[in-house]
Amino acid sequence: xxxxxxxxxxxxxxxxxxxxxxxxxxxxxxxxxxxxxxxxxxxxxxxxxxxxxxxxxxxxxxxxxxxxxxxxxxxxxxxxxxxxxxxxxxxxxxxxxxxxxxxxxxxxxxxxxxxxxxxxxxxxxxxxxxxxxxxxxxxxxxxx
Length: 144
Hints:
It is a single chain. The protein is α+β, with helices and mostly antiparallel strands. The chain is built from five helices and four strands. The protein has helices at 9-33, 61-76, 79-83, 95-104, 130-141; strands at 51-56, 86-91, 110-114, 120-125. A hairpin with a 5-residue loop joins strand 3 and strand 4 (120-125). Helix 2 (61-76) packs across helix 5 (130-141). The longest helix has 25 residues, at 9-33. It is elongated. 25% of the residues are buried. Residues 30-34 have low confidence and may be disordered.
């Protein structure tokens, strides 16, 4: 003999509430670990200031690590150096990122260093340590 279990409305409501809470936690975690401090306006490339553009892919663990390193280096810069260039992010999945990647023939997790006219100086694959990011910045800041 088989038993059939029917759930009461309270059990159904509790299950739904737990599912929604789980979804909420996942969304909150995504926002908590999203990179901060990057401008997403890629139209700034070639507009008079050099730029360091990071191609961010949320599906690659190295992207979060690289974003943290870039933030660490930028936070350590003096105000003059910080303001002398753009720190930009091209997020995979956005149309402007796709256009940028096609134009400059770069891939996810690349760091792209561009001069003030938008010409590529260097493309480097992540993971670049703080010393390497600083060296990239110095390439454009010291040659201005």
